[in-house]
């Protein structure tokens, strides 16, 4: 029997912890449904903090400037909530290592290049792991090159890549597409160019969506309740 093909565009940002949780939950659903469906996965960029300088900003100062000084007393509870959500998905959030909120434009360029090389899922996952578990700077081009090569991008493709213009226009065009589509928070999962699943939904929700796919569904029809996500204002 021919498997039904399902196309999934994952709109996410490397800085977004719920994007990491959502990616892992989707992966779980895909593994469980592989016998019935053939999946075509691609990552689309969304910068939650596009105006962050290249050197990044102190994480605590970022939260204070975004939400006011009172947020400091809530950070531990926020981190614990994410750790509790991530643990069942195999995610180890090490927030004590995250001292800086990074600019992620170069990270999105690397994900784009990985797509050109056929290893996008591997590289995107490695970026999440490198940031949230290892605490690496996701705007450090040396670290990005290392991650890219370790996950299948040919070294020669990365030679001088970040010094060139390659990938910049492509990333910006995809970001504009996401904004024009009405996406204001991530993760967002666009399935078969018609279904929009918002937030880090559990694997069971993705199974429900897979079973409900129909060719006449209006584009981006919201078919699930809101899941946890990060908004364009940085609220996670």
How many structural domains does the protein architecture include?
A: 1
Would you report the number of β strands? 9
Largest sheet: 5 strands, mixed
Structural class: alpha/beta
Contiguous uncertain segments of 5+ residues: 214-219
User: Termini distance?
Assistant: 42 Å
Helical residue percent band: 40-55%
Task: Summarize this entry quickly.
This protein is α/β, with parallel strands linked by helices and 236 residues long.
Describe this structure in words.
This is DsbA family oxidoreductase. It comes from Pontibacter diazotrophicus. GO terms for molecular function: oxidoreductase activity. This protein is α/β, with parallel strands linked by helices and 236 residues long. It has a single domain (4-231), classed as Glutaredoxin (3-Layer(aba) Sandwich). The protein has 9 helices and 9 strands. It has helices spanning 17-33, 59-67, 75-86, 105-116, 120-132, 141-150, 155-158, 168-180, 203-212, and strands at 4-12, 37-45, 57-58, 100-101, 185-186, 188-191, 195-198, 221-222, 230-231. The strands form 3 sheets. Strands 2-1-6-7-8 form a 5-stranded mixed β-sheet. A two-stranded antiparallel sheet has the order 3-4. Strands 5-9 form a two-stranded antiparallel ribbon. Strand 6 (188-191) and strand 7 form a beta hairpin. Helix 4 runs parallel beside helix 6 (141-150). The radius of gyration is 17 Å and the shape is globular. The protein starts with a strand and ends in a 5-residue tail after the last strand. Residues 214-219 have low confidence and may be disordered.
